[in-house]
Amino acid sequence: MNKIHLIVLLITHLCINCYSEYTGRQVVRHIDGCFFSEGVYRNFYQMKQYCESIDGSLVPIHSFHDNALLRRAFPSDVTFLGACRRDKKWDWVDKKPHSFDFWKDNEPNNAGGHENCIEFINGGQHDGKWNDVSCHRRMYTVCKIRDCEAFVAKEKELERKELENNMEKSFKKIISSMNAELLASLKSNFTNFANDVHRRINETLLEMTSEITEDLRRKSKLN
């Protein structure tokens, strides 16, 4: 396999890896914007801050339709809904009145008096159900994005830059490896050349010594 084929294979492998990493970040569009999810686990406060940093929010749910959409927005796991208990009421991030719920049986129970956030269960026996939990638990990150088109465009640009950076790193590794191989080859060739020159010089010196010795013998006989 020549070096060109090797480079192509390495770049292809690199691009496949980049794409696989990127698809861990998922965007699901719907009529009222879009959901963004990624396999990073955050507590309620961290997730709220992160969602706001990407021009989004934690997900508010006010209908069975909203609930069904969220079930399709991320892999089977759990996430926080955009609500927090205040004075025995649920305060939603979009400030809309509480008009819908889908609690598990015997929930919410505020066990221990510290379950002030809502867990959304995606998959399993309680698929789509809610449960009140501690806000300090860590869950799969899901955000509702305000401007879907702008967000997707930004994600694609980030993907492009990440791909370029990884390709540049890969090229540097390949060039470094090729340079090391070239230097080793040059060193080996130079050593072989030097040994060959040394051998030829020795052979020439031996021949000259032999000729001089023979010439001296002839002169000695003549005298």
Automatic annotation (TrEMBL):
Q: Does the keyword Ion transport apply?
A: no
Q: Known SUPFAM superfamilies for this protein?
A: C-type lectin-like
Q: Please provide the record's keywords in A-Z order.
A: Disulfide bond, Signal
Q: State the signal peptide span.
A: 1-20
Enumerate the spans annotated as C-type lectin domain: 30-144
Q: Which SMART domains match?
A: CLECT
Q: Please identify the protein, giving its name as recorded.
A: Ladderlectin-like protein
Which organism was this protein described from? Leptotrombidium deliense
Kindly list the organism's lineage. Eukaryota, Metazoa, Ecdysozoa, Arthropoda, Chelicerata
